[in-house]
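Can anyone check this?
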Amino acid sequence: MQKTLSIIAPTGSGVFYFPGFVKIEAMRGTGQWGQVSEYDVVIDDQALDEVSVVSIGSTDNRPGDQYPGNISLGRAILFGYPMYVHYTVEPAPSWNVEKTMVITGQSWEILAYVKGFVAIDGIQRRGDWDRLDVVVRYRPNDPELHKITVSTTAPDRDLPANAIDLGVIWQNDMARYARYTDEIVTPTP
């Protein structure tokens, strides 16, 4: 459902991040010298997960919609001088947020599929038996699906060609060597 918000911002300038942005419906000058305007922004509350970057700009010689990509908001007077106000819209960049999760499994092999896998930050023994906790860092906005295999071996520390060493884990008074492999199973679109 579409809703209209009113925001007050400088006339002819500003960059805003709007979830569910549809359009700027109107602009009204409100400051004594025209330095401030009120903008009626239409958003769709069913599309709040889609964030747009809205940039408001101005030109002094001709309407902004004569430039590709600009959407005109009309003419304004700023400190006694006429100008043409416009805006552009583009999708917001995907945020590079990283999160962690803990995966628990048997020490001889833990197999997990992790969307947006970045790295394994830690590994530790859990309890008295052969269970391990693996701390995995990932990016929830990254669409790549990774197949992660964590395993331990003893007494040899030899690593397969594509494995990454996680160090030594002590289990039942015996040193075991932990490692993991990472395989991308879905390509980036």
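Reply from J.R.: I decoded it. The mean pLDDT is 85.
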